[in-house]
Design goal:
- The strands form two sheets. The chain has a six-stranded mixed β-sheet, with helices on both faces. The chain has a three-stranded mixed β-sheet with strand order 5-7-8.
- It has nine helices and nine strands.
- The mean pLDDT is 93.
- The chain starts with 6 loop residues before the first strand and ends in a 9-residue tail after the last helix.
- It has a single domain, classed as Alpha-Beta Complex (2-enoyl-CoA Hydratase, Chain A, domain 1).
- By secondary structure, it is α/β, with parallel strands linked by helices.
- 46% of the residues lie in helices and 15% in strands.
- The relative contact order is 0.15.
């Protein structure tokens, strides 16, 4: 099994357990992380001994979203948000196109593109204290990673707009009520519960489950790749805005942003 720098991969019977492993930055995403996740998911999908995948996060939370540390706006160079997003999107497509079922075990925060990853998984088990957060608007961006598409089809336009435009936490219990997660368990029971679900899927009829996943994908998200491409283009529109610069600065300085509307 390959050695990775940003994730840990462990085989447990027929389950490939992929753990996001950048706990020092709350498992935030950089290009290396996305490329390693994509490689691991693709490899698991092709391995006949793997019959289900489980994705969890190391440390205090599932994932805080994109890694904003080290961004320098002082030079005046416009960031290539679209380029980074195209790399991140490879991971989301790999999860959706993987012929094996993918379970997310969520604790703590699943924010930004970390929340998009949760929504891309087939089944989700969440700890009671966990939450989803469409944090993009809080730093002057729009949701990406297919999040708007997932939300619109699962919770409707009104609730999707609420989550995307207000950027407020959605607690696990409410996410269950809205149909965004499949089960909520006490925090201490999450690892066992998520693995039990993955093992149950791994013991199931692999071909039938693969065809269920494929048919659902073709029915509900036939245009996901095109949607992700559009998101990358539109996200780039924000790269040079004062609101994006202010949003990131406020996030890193742990203060409320003062958006200027430009």
């Amino acid at each position: 099994m390959p050695e990775y720098a940003t994730i840990r991969v462990v085989r447990d019977g027929g389950v490939e357990h992929i753990k996001l492993n950048r706990p020092e930055v709350l498992n935030s995403w950089n290009d290396e992380f996305s490329l390693e996740m994509t490689a691991a998911v693709d490899a698991a999908g092709k391995d006949p001994e793997v019959r289900a995948l489980l994705v969890t996060g190391a440390g205090r939370g599932f994932s805080a979203g994109a890694d904003l540390g080290g961004i320098d706006f002082s030079s005046g160079v416009v960031l290539d948000l679209a380029g980074h997003l195209r790399i991140h999107n490879l991971t989301l497509l790999a999860v959706r196109q993987c012929p094996k079922p993918v379970v997310a075990g969520v604790h703590g925060a699943a924010a930004g593109i970390g929340a998009s990853l949760v929504l891309a998984c087939d089944l989700v088990v969440a700890a009671e204290s966990s939450y989803l957060l469409m944090a993009f608007v809080n730093i002057g961006l729009m949701p990406d990673g297919g999040a708007l598409s997932y939300l619109a089809e699962r919770v409707g336009l009104a609730r999707a707009a609420e989550l995307a435009m207000l950027g407020e936490r959605l607690p696990a219990a409410k996410a269950l009520d809205w149909g965004l997660v499949n089960a909520v368990v006490p925090d201490g029971e999450l690892p066992a519960a998520a693995m039990a679900l993955a093992q149950r899927l791994a013991a199931g009829p692999t071909v039938a489950i693969a065809n269920v996943k494929r048919t659902l994908r073709e029915t509900a998200q036939a245009e996901l790749a095109a949607q992700l491409s559009v998101e990358a283009e539109r996200q780039q529109d924000h790269a040079g805005t004062a609101d994006f610069a202010e949003g990131v600065a406020a996030f890193l300085e742990r203060r409320a942003p003062g958006f200027l509307g430009r």
